[in-house]
Write a structure and sequence with these properties.
Elements: H1 23-30, H2 49-72, E1 81-87, H3 94-101, E2 110-111, E3 117-121, E4 128-133, H4 138-145, E5 150-156, H5 163-175, E6 180-186, H6 199-211, E7 216-219, H7 225-234, E8 248-250, E9 253-257, E10 264-274, E11 283-286, E12 290-301, E13 315-322, H8 350-354, H9 368-371, H10 389-417, H11 419-450, H12 465-468, H13 502-513, E14 523-531, H14 532-548, E15 553-556, E16 587-591, E17 594-598
Helix pairs in contact: 4-5
């Protein structure tokens, strides 16, 4: 039987597709009636499945476009990208690096005060960039890193990274460096021949090892001008989780208002809102100085115009003032008031409240301490001579004082006889005592280095061990013995804030930070209330920072961040840092935007393992 294969040449005609019924067919079907597009009472959201899918796809595409534009800085509401120029070799020139950022044969859009801040327009009239020199002060450099989007390293190809620049790099790496880093080489030429490696590749490998990430390296020639500008325009800026919930403003202008009559003066800081929306009801912190409340915020039009024909993008044409709500504005109180009567179990008597001294009748020879234990009763414990405890005590003190005077005179007479002999012996033993003291201190230092957590009480010590350690409490087991964490705490602990659940409090603070405020990218003037007694010092500090570093940054605080509490933390040291740091040495503790001068006590953290 022959096997027949299925034919592959079967003809398939294309079916007729119509976009819809013709006008004649519609007129005939409706007999002259016209169907309403939106009938009364009918739901306008009742759509077909294909239309719903198409609408969802369009919304997703639009959201992706907005997210990408926001990362690239192309959104109309975005502030100009902030690029910090940082030289890491001695002969590198920041002025030559700024020439690469400017468009050829044109001037920058607008300069700040001096040559330290410059705003330029990048490629295709769609992006703006603000360039600022990296401050030489380490604390000011950390302030700038809060609002920085791109770090541009300026390098002389013929030199190596100097020690000061390496220290600054370690500092910003520990504090939090922006993820976008590029480098520009100066004073270099491409080597010819296969045996010589390009300086761009050499420095690319060095910077990758230094920052643990790929760093784009450009040559400082005119040819690379467009490459640098194009890269800065198209590079995506990731969101920084540590600062994405805190609004910040980099000051471009500083104003002070004082009418001499009101209780508080005003300091105005003008700049772009960055990182997060600005809530006028929150507190605002100036690093290294203090925390203040906002009086009001003025929203201006964007002064940095971009686009063809001077078209302005972003910002409002008319000024708008935002005033905080007095009921919702956070308080400046850091410490809680101590209640003197908290947990008080006794109530003072009327005589104690009036301050009168109560006299009791006690047996003869009773001291003041024993007299406090006797019950106040006129019929009991009367002395034979009717004398009180205080009078008897005065007599006893008088007798003991006379006996002490007599014994003191006898001792002084004996000392006068041996005074000459003692003077001769003192000179002989001075050198021996100094040597013994030196050896003792050296031995104690060596033992303290070998056994830092142990305390030795010598057997021949004049102070017994029970007296030496009477302020400590012995427990049978550190794991199972009951222990009250609030037992015998210092009085200052009553002023701090206690959190029952720290994670829940953190979640509430982060949720509260998402409340809508002044949009990111708005050009505003933030007016802060400053007490009159602090106006001179605050204004002087802000002026000095603006004139010398151009790095005055104001950061908004989250809820609870102004409250004082206790925090334990673990620290690590850089391998390059070889300085000896002793316990209770004065250090500057940097925690986010806050700085505190502390004298820490160190302890070894083993985590149940040998170290």
């Amino acid at each position: 039987m022959q096997h027949h294969h299925r034919s592959q040449l079967k003809q398939k005609n294309k079916p007729f597709k119509s976009s819809g019924p013709s006008k004649k067919a519609i007129k005939k079907a409706n007999s002259g009636r016209v169907e309403l597009k939106n009938a009364p009472g009918a739901s306008s959201t009742s759509k077909g499945r294909a239309e719903r899918i198409n609408k969802a796809r369009q919304a997703l595409t639009e959201q992706r476009r907005k997210t990408l534009n926001a990362r690239r800085g192309l959104d109309a509401s975005c502030a100009p990208r902030l690029c910090v120029l940082m030289k890491i070799t001695r002969s590198a020139s920041l002025a030559q690096a700024k020439v690469l950022l400017r468009e050829k044969n044109s001037e920058e859009m607008q300069d700040g005060a001096g040559n330290d801040m410059m705003t330029v327009q990048l490629e295709n009239a769609s992006q703006r960039l603000t360039a600022i020199d990296a401050p030489a002060d380490p604390l000011m450099l950390m302030d700038v890193m809060i609002v920085t989007d791109v770090v541009l390293l300026v390098i002389d190809a013929q030199e190596e990274v100097d020690a000061k620049s390496q220290h600054m790099i370690n500092l910003i790496k520990a504090y939090g460096i922006p993820p976008t880093i590029i480098a520009v080489l100066q004073n270099f030429s491409e080597s010819a021949g296969p045996k010589h490696e390009s300086p761009i590749k050499v420095w690319g490998a060095k910077l990758k090892n230094m920052f643990n990430r790929d760093v784009k390296v450009f040559g400082g020639s005119t040819v690379d001008r467009l490459s640098v500008r194009r890269h800065l325009s198209n590079v995506s800026i990731p969101v920084r989780p540590s600062w994405s919930n805190r609004s910040s403003v980099l000051a471009e202008n500083l104003q002070i208002q004082d009418d001499g009559q009101s209780k508080d003066a005003l300091i105005g800081i003008t700049g772009y809102v960055r990182n997060a929306s600005l809530n006028v009801n929150k507190l605002f912190h100036i690093p290294s100085f203090g925390t203040y409340q906002a009086s009001h915020v003025v929203i201006h039009g964007d002064p940095h115009r971009i686009g063809k024909g001077g078209k302005e993008i972003g910002g409002a044409e008319d000024e708008k003032t935002v005033i905080p709500d007095q009921e919702e504005q956070e308080s400046l109180m850091m410490e809680h008031e101590v209640d003197e009567m908290d947990q008080e179990q006794t109530w003072p008597t009327e005589e104690e409240m009036q301050g009168k001294k109560k006299v009791k009748k006690v047996p003869k020879g009773t001291g003041s301490y024993q007299a406090a234990w006797y019950v106040d009763n006129d019929d009991e414990y009367e002395g034979s001579d009717g004398e009180t405890g205080d009078e008897n005590e005065d007599e006893g003190d008088h007798e003991s004082q006379e006996s002490d005077e007599e014994s003191e005179q006898e001792i002084l007479e004996d000392e006068d006889e041996d005074e000459d002999d003692q003077d001769m012996q003192d000179d002989d033993h001075d050198q021996e005592k100094e040597m013994e003291e030196f050896l003792r201190l050296k031995k104690e230092a060596k033992e303290n280095e070998m056994f830092p957590d142990e305390i030795d009480v010598p057997l021949d010590s004049k102070v017994p061990a029970r007296t030496r350690f009477q302020k400590y409490r012995g427990v049978k087991s550190l794991r199972s013995s009951p222990w009250d964490p609030n037992e015998n705490l210092p009085r200052d602990y009553a002023k701090i804030s206690h959190f029952k659940n720290a994670n829940a409090s953190k979640a509430r603070a982060l949720a509260d930070a998402k409340v809508a405020g002044i949009d990111v990218g708005s050009y505003v003037t933030l007016w802060l209330r400053v007490p009159r007694e602090q106006l001179e010092s605050t204004a002087s500090y802000c002026r000095d920072v603006m004139e010398s570093h151009k790095a005055l940054v104001v950061v908004g605080l989250l809820k609870y961040e102004n409250n004082m509490t206790v925090m334990n933390c673990s620290i690590d040291r850089f391998k390059e840092d070889g300085d000896v740091i002793k316990g209770k040495d004065s250090l500057i503790l940097v925690c986010g935007m806050r700085r505190m001068e502390v004298q820490p006590i160190y302890s070894e953290q083993k985590n149940n393992r040998w170290s």
